Amino acid sequence: MPVLARAHAITCSPRCRQRRSRAHRAVPAELRGRDRWVRRSADKVPLRAGTGRPASSTDPATWASHTEAAHSPHGTGLGYVLADGDGTVVLDLDHCLDGGRLAPWAAEILAACPLTYTEVSPSGTGLHIWGRGRLTRGRRIRRDDGAAIEAYSTGRYIALGHRYHQAPLHLADLTEVLDALL
């Protein structure tokens, strides 16, 4: 960022500002319409959009609208809080991308899923598969083939990355995939 830039500037140029704005629209409207948004720090700590202080994945008073969170100067990115009642689930496939190549176990899971919003995690090495479904509690699955899978629907927040290829901007029902995995 230029030395003479304003101290409160979020982006370095109009081009960066436009790219940032477009990235925030590349999230399903179903999620954007809910007040379950937080900011995140570089080390994935959830932050309040208004103050930059720590947010909680279980306290709605610390969450914000998508618009407020997207325009907040705090932190380095967005996060979405998974909470009871809305039926949103996320499959978090850890360490499944290497140089853009998808691990065979992750490719199998992705192929079994209906077309649904999928994103690359902030680290660039994992995938978040977003959908609708129900889980009674979060799960972590480790398999002999190297699979590292987490499934969550409540009490967690997901640090948003960027849209995977041309993933659709809607959430599909993942019930059958969850049943098979769990």
Q: How many DSSP H or I helices?
A: 5
- Please give the number of β-strands: 13
Average pLDDT score: 89
Shape descriptor: globular
Give the SSE string.
HHEEHEEEEHEEEEEEEH
Specify the biggest β-sheet. 7 strands, mixed
Query: What is the count of structural domains?
Result: 2
The SS-based structural class is alpha+beta
Helix content: 10-25%
Our measurement of the CA-to-CA distance between the termini, rounded to an integer number of angstroms, reads: 47 Å
User: In terms of per-residue confidence, which ranges show pLDDT below 50 for 5 or more consecutive residues?
Assistant: 3-8, 17-24
Radius of gyration: 17 Å
Strand content: 25-35%
What structural keywords apply?
alpha+beta, 4-stranded antiparallel β-sheet, 5 helices, 7-stranded mixed β-sheet, 13 strands, 182 residues, 2 domains
Structural account:
It is a single chain. The chain is α+β, with helices and mostly antiparallel strands. The chain has 2 domains: 28-81, no CATH class; 88-181. It has helices spanning 14-25, 29-32, 66-70, 104-112, 175-181; strands spanning 37-40, 46-47, 77-82, 88-93, 97-98, 101-102, 118-120, 127-132, 139-142, 148-152, 156-159, 162-163, 172-173. Strands 4, 7, 8, 9, 10, 12 and 13 form a 7-stranded mixed beta sheet that branches. Strands 2-1-3-11 form a 4-stranded antiparallel beta sheet. It is globular and about 45 Å long. The termini are far apart. The relative contact order is 0.18. Residues 3-8 and 17-24 have low confidence and may be disordered.
